[in-house]
């Protein structure tokens, strides 16, 4: 068996790369050790978390907001087994979709763990221990990432859980402690809070969602606090005692001071993810890693070993499914002699809570640090008719534009459907557009998108509705 390209790992990076390679006429195979394709994102990440966020949001709406609309329903109850079945159904449907796409694109599938025996040779070990070797002109590593473990803290996925366990709980914990106020902690903390858990988030830094615009983060923290999430910022976990039926979490202020013990039924450890390269044989063939264990690649996604490429969570950059996909496409387009490219300055990021948080481009903090002069246009959803009439008026849109050229450098949104609204800003940034371009573009009324236009108008201090 000999291929132009063998892709190891069928997460969003790997499976999309394989499809694009096949479209470009490369004879392609994939190797996947999980039973199902789709990687972290589809099996234990993006998709299941969004199913739980969707359903738990409906639960909360039925319990709280419906009455405001004059709709009377009896107090909603949650059947966690059914909720989990709903989640699994969504995963299964998407997994079938990838199976179909592999067949349609004539991509050969090898089930098992891939190891690069030498450049051009991937050894695949199946679950039963049998091995076979697949030959490839090029090998693309797309093996993704794994949960970052906290030293001395054991994850049993029952009481002390990673995101994987937190997505699969069979009942609502009365008390959930979340370690890490990043994306996973706040999305999954939101799910279980909506369903009835008391949620305490312990964060090492003195702010939540580091890396995001500071003003957005502050507003986000205020809103989540109003929803009932308790934050302990500037606090470190010094130990977790798993009692079998629950846990005692010992925390203390980072700045020093008395420690305290927080009781929990479940503790979610969400302190980041690390690249996954175990068992690939990288050391043996001499593939270079950086200090954080990520595979080092050049701007054509080539490692230092000829014929071995890498993309997605296993290399540097934001650990996002769409970033992995774009890299997969670019890497194989370049292989096929085309001009593949990823614009790293224009990768949107979304947190799928209520309200959603979405951003693209640079934050105010980054612009200040780089010494770039900028103008700010801000528009609150309280002044947007559609958001207001639907009682979804928390949050704002913030547009940051270059003071000299008016080119938009960053857009940050906290508000209803921010994850959808951000994409006009993504296109604008991709085309190097100005705030004036956005401000002069007709937006349908009444839409939440009008808040984006108004924020662009506000850059030139001429917003209409504030
Ligand atoms: P992965 O999706 O991790 O896929 C790697 C695949 O390689 C896996 O299937 C693995 O089994 C396989 N593999 C590994 N080693 C081998 C081997 N030696 N042989 C064969 N197969 C191997 N990102 C977003 O953009 N939006 C979101 O909403 C979002 N939500 C998330 C929620 C959670 C709870 C988590 C944990 C992550 C979330 N992410 C989200 C991040 C997203 O899942 C990752 O960025 C994305 O999956 C990375 O894609 P990838 O293809 O690089 O790797
Ligand atoms: P993260 O990097 O977003 O957040 C981790 C948080 O934990 C940070 O705030 C960090 O300061 C804190 N932290 C680290 N060590 C700590 C400690 N010892 N004690 C207390 N706090 C500590 O990582 P997270 O949430 O685990 O997510 C991992 C990756 O998955 C992210 O890179 C993200 O991009 C991706 N993801 C994306 C989603 C999306 O796009 N909607 C959803 C979920 C995950």
Automatic annotation (TrEMBL):
Cofactor-binding details, from the entry: Binds 1 FAD per subunit.
Domain named Pyridine nucleotide-disulphide oxidoreductase dimerisation: residues: 347-456
Species per Swiss-Prot/TrEMBL record: Pseudochelatococcus contaminans
Note: The active site is a redox-active disulfide bond.
Keyword vocabulary terms for this entry: Disulfide bond, FAD, Flavoprotein, NAD, Nucleotide-binding, Oxidoreductase, Redox-active center
GO molecular function: dihydrolipoyl dehydrogenase (NADH) activity; flavin adenine dinucleotide binding
Catalytic activities: N(6)-[(R)-dihydrolipoyl]-L-lysyl-[protein] + NAD(+) = N(6)-[(R)-lipoyl]-L-lysyl-[protein] + NADH + H(+)
Cofactor: FAD
Positions of the catalytic residues: 445
UniProt-listed Pfam families: Pyr_redox_2, Pyr_redox_dim
Enzyme superclass (EC): oxidoreductase
NCBIfam families to which the protein is assigned, alphabetical: lipoamide_DH
Disulfide bond sites: 41-46
Enzyme nomenclature, EC number: 1.8.1.4
The protein's name: Dihydrolipoyl dehydrogenase
InterPro entries with a match to the protein in the record: Class-I_Pyr_Nuc-Dis_Oxidored (IPR050151), FAD/NAD-bd_sf (IPR036188), FAD/NAD-binding_dom (IPR023753), FAD/NAD-linked_Rdtase_dimer_sf (IPR016156), Lipoamide_DH (IPR006258), Pyr_nuc-diS_OxRdtase (IPR001100), Pyr_nucl-diS_OxRdtase_dimer (IPR004099), Pyr_OxRdtase_I_AS (IPR012999)
A GO term from the CC aspect: cytoplasm
Keyword Membrane listed: no
Residues that, per the record, bind FAD: 50, 114, 143-145, 313, 319-322
């Amino acid at each position: 068996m000999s291929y132009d390209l063998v892709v190891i790992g069928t997460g969003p990076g790997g499976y999309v790369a394989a499809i694009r390679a096949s479209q470009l006429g490369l004879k392609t195979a994939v190797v996947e050790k999980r039973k199902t394709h789709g990687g972290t994102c589809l099996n234990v990440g993006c998709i299941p978390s969004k199913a739980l966020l969707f359903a738990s949001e409906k639960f909360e709406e039925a319990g709280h907001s419906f009455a405001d609309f004059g709709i009377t329903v009896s107090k909603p109850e949650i059947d966690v087994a059914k909720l989990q079945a709903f989640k699994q159904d969504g995963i299964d449907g998407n997994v079938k979709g990838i199976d179909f796409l592999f067949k349609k694109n004539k991509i050969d599938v090898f089930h098992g763990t891939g190891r690069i025996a030498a450049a051009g040779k991937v050894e695949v070990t199946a679950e039963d221990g049998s091995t076979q070797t697949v030959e490839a002109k090029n090998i693309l590593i797309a093996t993704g990432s794994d949960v970052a473990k906290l030293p001395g803290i054991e994850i049993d996925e029952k009481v002390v859980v990673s995101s994987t366990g937190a997505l699969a709980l069979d009942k609502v914990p009365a008390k959930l402690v979340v370690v890490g106020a990043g994306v996973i902690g706040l999305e999954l903390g939101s799910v279980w809070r909506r369903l009835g858990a008391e949620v305490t988030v312990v964060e090492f830094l003195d702010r939540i969602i580091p890396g995001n615009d500071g003003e957005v983060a502050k507003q986000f923290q205020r809103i989540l606090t109003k929803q009932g999430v308790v934050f302990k910022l500037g606090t470190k976990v010094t130990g977790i005692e798993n009692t079998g039926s629950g846990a005692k979490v010992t925390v203390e202020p980072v700045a020093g001071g008395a420690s305290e013990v927080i009781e929990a039924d479940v503790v979610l450890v969400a302190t980041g993810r690390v690249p996954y390269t175990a068992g690939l044989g990288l050391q043996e063939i001499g593939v270079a890693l950086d200090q954080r264990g990520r595979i080092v690649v050049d701007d054509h996604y080539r490692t230092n070993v000829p014929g071995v490429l890498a993309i997605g969570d296993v290399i540097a950059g934001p650990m996002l499914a769409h970033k992995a996909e774009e890299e997969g496409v670019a890497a194989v387009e370049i292989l096929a002699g085309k001009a593949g490219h990823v614009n790293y300055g224009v990768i949107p990021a979304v947190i799928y809570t209520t309200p959603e948080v979405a951003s693209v481009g640079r934050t105010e903090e980054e612009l200040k640090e780089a010494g770039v002069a900028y103008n700010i246009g801000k528009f609150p959803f309280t002044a947007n008719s559609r958001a207001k009439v639907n009682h979804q008026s928390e949050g704002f849109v913030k547009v940051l534009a270059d003071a000299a050229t008016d080119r938009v450098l960053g857009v940050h949104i906290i508000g209803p459907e921010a994850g959808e609204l951000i994409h006009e800003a993504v296109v604008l940034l991709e085309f190097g557009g100005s705030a004036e371009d956005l401000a002069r573009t007709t937006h349908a009324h009444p839409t939440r998108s009008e808040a984006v236009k108004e924020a662009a108008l506000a850059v030139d201090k001429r917003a209409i509705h504030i």
